[in-house]
Amino acid sequence: MTVKEVPKELEEERGQLVDLMVDIHNHYHGKKVAIFGDPDIVTSMTEFAVSLGMIPKYVLTGTPGSAFEKDVTDILKSAGIEDFRVKAAGDLMELHQWIKNDKVDLLIGNTYGKYISRAENIPLVRMGFPILDRVGHSYFPVVGYKGAMRIIEKISTALLDKYDRECPEEDFELVM
Amino acid sequence: MKSLEAYPLEERKSHILVKEKDQIQGISCDRHSVSGVVSQRACVYCGARVVLNPITDAVHIVHGPIGCSSYTWDIRGSLSSGSEMFRNSFSTDLEEKDIIFGGEKKLSEAIDEIVRAKFPKAVFVYSTCVVGVIGDDIEAVCRAAERKYGIRVIPVKSTGFAGSKKDGYKAACDAIISLMDGGKYERGVKDPRSFNYLGDFNLAGEIWVVNNYFKEIGLNMITGVTGDPTVEKLRKARNASFNIVQCAGSSIYLAERMKEKFGIPYEKVSFFGIQDTVSSLIKLAELSGDEEVKKKTEKLIRIMVAEVEPVLEKYRKKCRGKKVAIYVGGGFKAVSLIKQFSELGMKTVMVGTQTGRKQEYETIRELVEEGTVILDDTNPSELEKFMKEKGADLLVGGVKERPLAYKLGMAFIDHNHERKHPLIGFEGAVNFAREVDLTLNSPVWEFVRKGGLHE
Asked: Which of the residues A30, A124, B19, B439 could staple to A107 if both were Cys, CB 3.0 to 4.6 A apart?
């Protein structure tokens, strides 16, 4: 709109993000994830997860409204994902039941997800509101290129930490 | 891109070939690397170590500076059904003083210490570059230790500077022959269905995958060389009626030596990809000359192909038409990979090997389409140049090639000896397709292509 060149700083940030994604893509690509919380953050996290090649299997909010279901369904369908469940006005009890029936590899949502995380041994990446048991969220970005880098770092660390804890001894590697 | 204009170097030109139709073309190979070129090959010692290391209950002592030992510590993804001894790395830790005054004493002390502490069945003592320069007489030290303890202490002549990884393979094969040949040997009755499987190192348990097939069709594998063997098993390898060779680069020399010394014929096989697995199983059944085995083989193939084909079809849809670059150690593996990619509907646009042989390059040339670049003992600059030129989407290689692919915005799959997923046989073909899909179809490449600083 401004007909100006993209500033070098932004290009560099984007470059860093893409570089980081390339280095770690095979560790999250194809992983199934459940995303829950408020619609604004859940919708954008779904879009983000899809752009990483992850499969948002369950997407759920407590807020009522059919617009949410339609938006999220559109995102998932246009990514060619078929096996998913989207629900507005849902609750975590229901999500827990879904997960018990068919597992996911990762949870993305607020602190209330920690009960499912513990019960099912699925790592939780804390995103959204409220986060009651971890610090620093008001200081670190979740938007823009830097925000994307931070979320990817959280996602891949959560997955790899679990792998390192549980993999057979011969698969435990210095370099992943 | 300026730096690339100098490439290929004059001396490298004969190692590069672009396939043209209906033409007799030869490539220079099987030679020492060009001086000053950053070859992707590893050193002589490393070559010897990767072949011998999977001998599970042997002790491997590296006579050299600590770096040689730590660099190859637990270097393979080989699995063991018994001892885990081989996953240690023992070193004489040569330092300045030893290099000036000689390291033989230190070596013999190291052997004493290890034999008393671990009671190994056999000890391999590797020579390194430094040892070659200072001229320690490893053979004498090993002979003395052998007399003292009554176990095999075998010197591995993997002194550096004298060549490349491939010379290390040879040194390792000589050491294996020495292990098979030395000491008392009881000749067993030869069963036509008994054989050794050479050149498979039980990465991620691969030899177990194929051994299941062997059992299914009624054949008896005496031992893998060196996939999950023990010293004892290797000494029985002489009883085999025939040998089959998977990794030709490392083990064809061993097969030749076994033929000449023990009269055991050999045949090349490959269990990578459906096509090669099927034809190798049939070949194996023929070798046994047993009608029952042949029947069982046909049945096994029917069942397995029916099982994996629908899964492969799913991946084929997602991978079809993509272009792939291959850079691996041996020529025979490259051949298998080309076939495997064409099974997935993918096209090989560049293929190179570290130690391929003339005959293998000819097979490669026949297999690939016109315009495909074929490289022998290449370097990162050439890889970069030709992958870009050919617009490859995916590179298959070892761990050294991964950063190169990633920095060029290209998908990558590890097919080297550190990997942890079985890629062999029918099950492996499915794993392979899954791994290709995992990296190739990640949305990240779209973001790379959309540009930024890299363009």
From this structure: A124
